[in-house]
Amino acid sequence: MANVKEIFNLMKKTSKKDLEFIDKAYNFAENAHKNHKRASGEPYFNHLFETAKLLAELNMDAVTVSAGLLHDSIEDVGVKEEDIKKIFGDEVFFLVNGVTKLGTIKYRDNKRHMESMRKLFVAMSQDIRVLMIKLADRLHNMRTLQYVKKEKQRRIAVETLEIYAPLAYRLGIRKFSRDLEDLSFQYVYPLEYEEIKTLVKKQNKKTLHRLEKFIKSLRKALAKENILNERVDYRIKGLYSLYNKLKRKKRGIEDVHDILAIRIYTETVGDCYKILGIVHGIWRPLHGRIKDYIAFPKTNGYQSLHTTIFTGDGSIIEVQIRTEKMHKNAEYGIASHILYKEEDEKVPQNYSVNWFKNLFPNILNLSGTSQTYSAINNGVPDWIKQLVDTQSGITENGEFLNTIKSDFFEERIFAFTPKGDVVDLPRGSSPIDFAYAIHSQIGNHTGAAKINGKMVSLSTKLKNGDIVEIITKESNHPTRKWLDMVKTSMAKKNIKSKI
Ligand code: MN
């Protein structure tokens, strides 16, 4: 039986007022949905309860958790908008309304779906908590997708795989994105899913006992250097992420060394490097496989040291070393930043961390329930705002999603200016995209480009970690040919307006 206390227990910091507020939403939702059942036959309220629990686990505030409980009340059981406003305030109403689909009278079928999607993006560009609710809602829906009609299953799963999982990833919420990916994988590519599952099972059987032996020797080696209390475990790579890796690298499973990865968790950044030194002192690392994501975090804020080593008994294994704090970051993204805000003194100054920091004001500034809530777009990441900007004006159904997919959710790369500023671009971007990402004036006058000190053609595809220098020339202007060389819609838009 559902119990509101389960939600409370998952929340870290709560006041008496918060608990009363959530309790009110809990009772309201339970009552509003009392004759309402899910496809599985269970009470509909279970879905709202589970959604709220996921939000509580992410350490969202009382307003968001309450909106999670109420998120289907307008759409599914006809609760009046005014009632939500009157009882729970404008802020809760904004969040609930943001995830509510448009009415069936105004739009039909696919058109309704596309317009609802656009509405959701606009709402989340004003308040990122709308997206958090949508992600929690979708995760629970994916966990119960087996009860939904066959023809609907695939559509929902495709959308999850193409839109929501990448969004969760981009927000750094690995705990959500991994599940969203693997849950949709089995519906979207059922054959491939079974294939990979069997493959991994076989492979793991072979490596698991070797792995345990290796962990023992690793512990011994660390103890020798007085590193005694570190937590060591291993993680199994998500099936969808493995599937993508195999497809991308065109390699066999025996050449993927991070299906099982050892993880060492420690306290300080210094300890991370010290442990890396100890590991390399004993086991030979594979050339070119050492990745310092502490100094150079991934675009979504992920930090860790990765290395791949020969264990000496014929196997090769990836070792990941990180602080406990980095680990919470990697699992909870935005949410962990709120939780650990006070201690977070020294996060490296780079684009991705700033991006996270930009989210704070909005998420932290929630306590005032009495004032009118006017959707302020403080703290919404630029890429979400951009996404909505480039969409306004596009009405063709397919184009809307295609642009979103190609621009924002394909794998991203990091490139650097000569001064070390990070520019975040989709894979396949060229120096011209880079130039436009810095400033439209630089883009418009791009004359030549250097990558890592060498002159390159403007159509060169940038790689992760490239240092890009743009040489501008006043007399230079965009040409039609540039359109074939760019990937981002920002560059395309600018070029089109000049030719
Ligand atoms: Mn729902």
Sheet with most strands: strand arrangement: 1-2-5-4-3
Name of the CATH first level of the largest domain = Mainly Alpha
Principal-axes shape call: globular
SS strand fraction: 5-15%
Examine the coordinates and then state which fold CATH places here, giving the name of the CATH topology of the largest domain. Hypothetical protein af1432
- Largest sheet, described in full? 5 strands, mixed
Mean pLDDT over all positions:
82
Task: Give your account of this protein's structure.
This protein is 55% helix and 11% strand. Helix 6 (81-99) crosses helix 8. The protein has 499 residues and is an alpha+beta fold. A 5-stranded mixed β-sheet has the order 1-2-5-4-3. The protein has a 3-stranded antiparallel β-sheet with strand order 9-8-10. The longest helix has 35 residues, at 190-224. Bound molecules: manganese (II) ion. The site of manganese (II) ion has 4 residues, from loops.
Layout of helices and strands:
Blueprint: H1 4-10, H2 16-32, H3 45-57, H4 62-70, H5 73-77, H6 81-99, H7 109-126, H8 129-143, H9 150-170, H10 174-188, H11 190-224, E1 231-236, H12 239-249, E2 260-266, H13 269-282, E3 291-292, E4 305-310, E5 316-323, H14 324-332, H15 334-339, H16 351-357, H17 360-364, H18 382-391, H19 397-409, E6 412-416, E7 422-426, H20 431-438, H21 440-444, E8 446-451, E9 454-456, E10 468-472, H22 482-485, H23 489-498
Parallel strand pairs: 2-5
Antiparallel strand pairs: 1-2, 3-4, 4-5, 6-7, 8-9, 8-10
Bound molecules: manganese (II) ion.
The site of manganese (II) ion has 4 residues, from loops.
